[in-house]
Queue: 3 jobs
Job 1
Amino acid sequence: MDTTIKRNEDTMGKIIVIGGGAAGMIAAGRAAQRGLDVHLYEKNDRLGKKILITGKGRCNITNDTDIEGMLSNIPGNPYFLYSAFYTLDSKGVQDFFAELGLQTKVERGNRVFPVSDKAADVVSALEKYLQKNRVHVHLSSPVEEILHENGKVRGVRLKNGKEVLADGVILCTGGLSYPGTGSTGDGHKMAKAAGHTITKLYPSLVPLRVKEKWCSDLMGLSLKNSAIVIKDKKGKVVYKDFGEMLFTHFGVSGPMILSASRHLVKQLEKEEYTLWIDLKPAMEESQLDARVLRDFEKYANKDFKNALDDLLPQKIIPVIWELSGILPEKKVNSITKEERKKLVHLLKNLPLHILGVTGYHEAVVTSGGIDVDEVNPSTMESKRIENLHFAGELLDVDAYTGGFNLQIAFSTGFTAGEHILETEKG
């Protein structure tokens, strides 16, 4: 992908980009690179505020996979993104940052991070892109309304009442997740006022709250190689996964749980779900029984509470005593076959009853947004207002964890910047 500056000094159009996150910065830079006069308006006092907290401050930029791999990790309207991904795919994003001096590395699950492990370096690279292309950045400048007339955009009205006229507008204000970063639904309100449909919004990639109080005793315990199955009250499997999870004071979190939440949030108000944890997914139940039997023979004269140290993390052992129904002081050599079988089954099927999710303040992304049927997938232009484009989390598209959501932001943002005022530019 060519990111060298191609500027026509006689700019042929003024563009306003609303929102200085991942989608907004790359959209503004690309539009300016095409020779347009671009003004980026950001409500915060700095750019990229949400980027700084992604990936626990390391910023999972993208996922090193092909377009089909991307689409398979997007449960929310994946095929709308075909054109955007062909415009800028994962390799394109990695090349884009390399040309800006940011070196990246690929980790487990094909996750791509900056070599420095600093999200701030990603923001700095994007700011460099804006500076190179002479984008006018307006910080602490919230936009209140998109101005349009006779089906064509004509500018914006700032919160202070000032009207700024423009030939095109790109709206990239994000969703509702992490509202402390400025994602408070402003863009949805502006798009709705401009005549667009907003589908129902939900927090997604969000920790789960559970009924069981013993979770709080395990707070901070991470299970690196566990498996989960989530079933509805009829026993139908709605999600299954293998990987990492984390116990919290209110329930469970971690990569597996966040992805699972995407399949639950829309039904939690009317459906009951149970999460079953397999603590030993590498073994069939018969194999695990044989392993437990060996441990019991090894610790035959010890109390049950001291016989599980080779098998489980220390922190979870008291929970297993209690749920197994075996008294912790019971001698191992007096544990019956039935008790052992029940224990083994518990280790493969540890149940948690899901109460709900924690909310937008801990959600990685928003599920729902601007109805994609009202947006041209090839250009990100509104089908209702000419020269109004959208990008990023504001749209009704969302993905699992692993760098896919930032790839969506970069691809849709770049596509919007590439095509805005395309006719005028020829």
Job 2
Amino acid sequence: MHELWITRLLNSILAGPANVLLNAIHFPAQDPKNPWSDWLACEIVVVIFCVIFFAVVRRRLSVDRPGKVQHALEVVYEFLHAQAEEVVGHDGGKYMAFFGTIFFFILFMNLIGLIPGFDSPTMYPMVPFGMAVSTFIFYHAAGLKTNRFGYVKQFLGPMLWLAPLMLPIEIISHFARPLSLTVRLFANMFAGEQVYLTFISLTKLIIPAVFIGLHLFVSFLQAYIFTLLAMIYVSGAVSHEH
């Protein structure tokens, strides 16, 4: 069975704590000697990288002499902020912390697969599903906080006599969203990763460079699409006219 070096390292030094935690939540590992999986190990690496990266960037922020990294991040922030205001409305900026977090987290998880010895966690369905569930919880919480009982009334339709018909449809529609987000991100990243790895193993230099560029494009595109759909769901939840 394929096992990354980082996963092998975690299984050799932290198998005991992992088994204790899994048993505590009544979800024991199938192989107690190897409780850590590739996707979780790579996801932890991305989390640590994100914390260190943004901590360093924050310390170096400057109004007078911004660096290249600050310029790049400001461009991304302005783009996401403009998208949030266009999709959600004037209150879109209130949710930028969430939108920015999921964009960069998904982007870095997509890109880590380009580094030899690592896999993209998003090519494993558990990771996109976790992000989709987080988005599902967030936009419902935002809708309840903004519209209170009026948010619940959205599920009942424009007229009370339509409620028995509209309520099941709305419930099914909303629960289908996490599945849609999961399948879209997982399928695209899995397919892209397989194509990239296949051509890397078959060719030498020039053609792999082309597919590295394609992988970069797909990584940015899928992070953007996931974030855009999250914005659309938040917009529908917090809209007063809905």
Job 3
Amino acid sequence: MKVKSHLFSLSNNLDSILAALIGFFLIQIFSRHSGIGISPDSVTYLSAARHLVHGKGFISFDDLPVVDFPFAYPFFLTVISFFTRLDPLQFGPLLNGLLFGILLYVSGGIMNGFNKPSAWYKRILLICILLSPAMQEVYSYLWSETIFLILILFFIISFSNYLKQHTTGWFLISILICSLACLTRYAGVFLIITGLCLIFFNGAFTWRKRILDCVLFGSISFSLLLINIIRNLKDTGLAMGPRPRNDEGILKIMEYFGGVLCDWLLLDRKPLLAIALTFILLILFVVTILFNKNSKKSKYGFEYTMAVTGLIYCIFMIITSSYTRYEQFTNRLLSPIFIPLLWSFSCWISGFFKNISIRLKWIYGILFLLITVWFLNVQVRADYEYYDGVKDAGIPGYREDPFVQSEIVQFLEKNKNVFDPRIPIYSNAGEAVYFVSGIAARQLPFLDFPAQVQQYYTGNNNYLVWFNDLDNPSMPDLKSILQHKNMVTVKEFPDGGVYLTK
């Protein structure tokens, strides 16, 4: 299927433009109280961008090379800062509002290219994406997913056209998109796997072409990430940072995965329900793939590519998290499947209505309308709960009022000179120390690496900044540290303290 310019033209996307504008202003509303949301990962992106702007290299809040995240997103922020002379905290709401608008507009254009496009279907789906708590949360924070999700949509467009037209141009565009996605998030590797699967199972290609294209696609798409990994190994000896092993079973992982799906439907998180929803999700993607692959009209179209993309991401996340311990699955980690899931669940509806009688159209139309109203009501309730929290206290994280107004944070902001610059600072939230004070602070070692923990215990002449509310069970607790290290109290508060090794 050739991507025609009119799919994404302004004249055929007035509804997409309206959705994009509303999305832009929603992010401005969420950010109005205290600015763009800042999480621990956001501080890494922010500090890396600031250091790059000032020519200090790709280093993090601890003055060490960034290895936990790839290069593209901090560099993207750096470029904007360089030309605007503004800090990412200043342009964050406008940037994220614009990116959310682009996501909505591109989504609308893709739905114009479905096998059986429908104006009412497109508008309902745009509203669902616009009101999605997962999408709103992602675009409320300074996170790399804000670009990653758009790159996934671009991949669906480019690869669908490559499968249909077999042109070198679309093949190279797909490679470029995959390369950028891998350099934006390490999880972008799933797009390479997706592309390889789409090529390998394309019956229109000879086996010789499939193998050759797979080799070219895989090797070139991985090249930018490989350069990033080589740099990481050279600077730190770690390919992608410390990655503790996960010892939990596959069913427990599927329970965590399905728990996010329960949240999307405002259902109570129950283990069996969460696991069942995960299985249903995987089956839904498989059915959508088989249906569209066997249909002459929609074969290798947008619906097929997006279903394969969604399925591979689910499998990739479940398998990799069984070996490496991620944070427990959240809206953020599973946001790449939201739009493919929405499309896979509903893309058949327009064609279904065109093939039934007027009487059945009324019956099924009312049924689908009730389901749509229920789902939108679920989303609006979740959105209002989110807005009710951020309008008075700010987006959760390091710009939220309870954190900003805490005594330990106020002390760090006003007493930076209490620290001897010759003595290193450790913290259970080093990124928080940097964010509120601008002072470099190293993270405490993870308990999964006992040699590093012991090295910290035996080390002398260092500060410890402790946040009670940011206690991380993967790190040594304050009681253990004080038992193993001879430390004096510099300043102590109900919500944290500053300590110095004697």
